Amino acid sequence: MTWTEQVPAFAGAFACVVAIFLIPGAGLLWLARVRGLVAWALGPAVSALLYGTAAVVLDRVGLPWGLPAVLAAAVPAAGVALLLGRWRRHDPPLRTAQLPTMVIRALWTAALLAGALLVIGVFAGMPDLAAPLQVRDAVVHLNGLELVRQDHNASMFGGLDLVVSSAGAGAFYPSLWHGALALVPFGSAGVVSTAGMLAVATVLWPLSMVALARAVLPAQPWAVVVVAALSTSFSFFPFGQLVLSAQWPNGLGTAMIPAVLAATVLWVRSWHDAALAARVRRRRALSGAVVLAGAVGGMVLVHPNTVFSYLVFAGPLLLAVAWRAWRAHPRTGRTVVWVVAGVVVAAAGVAAAARVSGLDRVLKDVMGYQQILPERPYLFTIARLLGDTTLASVPGNVLLSAAVLTGVVVLLRERRLRWVVLAWALTIALAALAGGPEIGLRGITGFWYKHVFRLEALYPITAVLLAAVGVGWWANRLHTRWSARVRDKAPRGAGRLVSSPVRAGATVLAAVLASSVVLGVPAMATRSAGVYDPENLGARLLVSADDRRLLDRLPELVPADAVVLGDPNAGAVLIFSYGSRTPVYYRIGADWLGTDQLLLALHFDEVSSDPAVCEALARLGVEYFYLSSDREDKKWPSNLATHALRAVDTASGFELLASEGAAQLFRITACE
């Protein structure tokens, strides 16, 4: 299909994904007396809590996943939210201060501009809107989405078994992203996945960051405009994690963190007021904690490592609050006992929940994860983050980095906001550890699979905020110097650009944004082509243009219940999501394969001489063979060895049914 033909489905899917994540959660939060920007920004996390819980329960009781079931699950959720709202009726709603109309207009403009720049960069490298992102994780997510659509099971405990493990294994896998996108009633897996990825990058993420800026910097309303404008300027997120790495569930969780952190800031501020009676402070703390716990729970259901990412940012904040409270009140033995008891009870509760849910076993596996990426010096990772050199070569995005470092210096002077700088430094340290040599301390990064790219994706959460502070400082500096120089004279020439604080801020922001556009957008287009466009993938190619054309025809060529054998490293890995037929291999990895699957991968070229091969085909119900003859062996360590699936002689024992260039479909006759 052409771009023109795909645009209606893409636009509809994009709107559906935004509505799926925003509306249910925002509605529940409104019932719980959370209002305005906070309700919309926190909505995706609460929606995730609804979807994740419903998916597990529906699987347990044997009901199918779908929109009717989700609507039914929303009824008791609304009841709980309403009860919480009644409990909090004596407290003011959890919300940020109202923004001036002028700021709101500028905010919309900035957000649309930032989103457009990212979309242009991504689309410039895509052959079409349904083009598969050709990296390992994307293959899993595309097939996982199609599996939920067909099987109507979005449970994180076994819902994606066919794709990530083996049938009936009951393996844990974060499937909320797949389940939510499966609610979109139209569009192919490719189109819906692209729409979902861009909805997270251009709507959920900027909205989340704007809420954080408004909560952390309430006295600087224009900061939200800067944050919105720069929300897509950093290469590590959203572009790096969502496009280059295709870590879509993890990326969805990352996009939620700023909103939940904003709610944390507002929660602390709502009850941390010595002027309030102790009883009122306790009620506010407890009722707000329930709302916050629900949002954190939603993040966990999106991707479990998100809670550890959240603690990287909330930890410094809560420690700062605790330290100030500790210094402000007498430290009696009773206080110490209560603090220690609270920590122990909280830790025990988390441990018990992990044990009951089975997540403790998942965590154990993750902490022992052996990263296959080559190690790199600590200074390399630090310089890469500070210079943002993923897309721009050294020295990187200098103006953006200068704004961040200026913000660091400014906030170090603000005692109550030093936790932002501490969280910023902590993300850099963790990323450096993850990318560095295998030492004992590197085990801390096991929560993120010891994967440096997952930790680098956290950097923009504080960096965008710091950049906004830096832009504000430079704007004030320029305006002050200009005012001192011209005094009462009318502004002329370049002086008009800094003749007011707002104009000065717009000038500095425009300079930083222009730098990001010039350095970032062309590089995004190039890097997008490197993961989307078959002509630019080289040895990393999984699905060629010939494969796409033949996969589109597959439903017309083989029966609906047919099983198709093919090399997952050469086109056949998307037989399920793009060809709508059952494959032998749903992924390119060699783990969790059955005996027959392994036998065919290693010995299918002996189909005419070895009866065991025909017996394996019969047990799996395979009658068709898919071949891309122009592909070379992949040398990736964890890939399935599939040379036999391309070395087979199709001159005899095979009937050619269709071909598109080097992609061919055969009916297997060798075993008849």
UniProtKB/TrEMBL annotation:
The keyword Membrane applies. The keyword Membrane applies. Keywords: Membrane, Transmembrane, Transmembrane helix. It comes from the Bacteria. Coiled coil: none annotated. The chain crosses the membrane at residues 6-30, 37-58, 64-85, 106-126, 182-207, 219-239, 251-272, 284-302, 308-326, 335-354, 394-412, 419-437, 457-476, 497-519. This is 4-amino-4-deoxy-L-arabinose transferase. It comes from Sanguibacter gelidistatuariae. The lineage of its organism: Bacteria, Bacillati, Actinomycetota, Actinomycetes, Micrococcales.
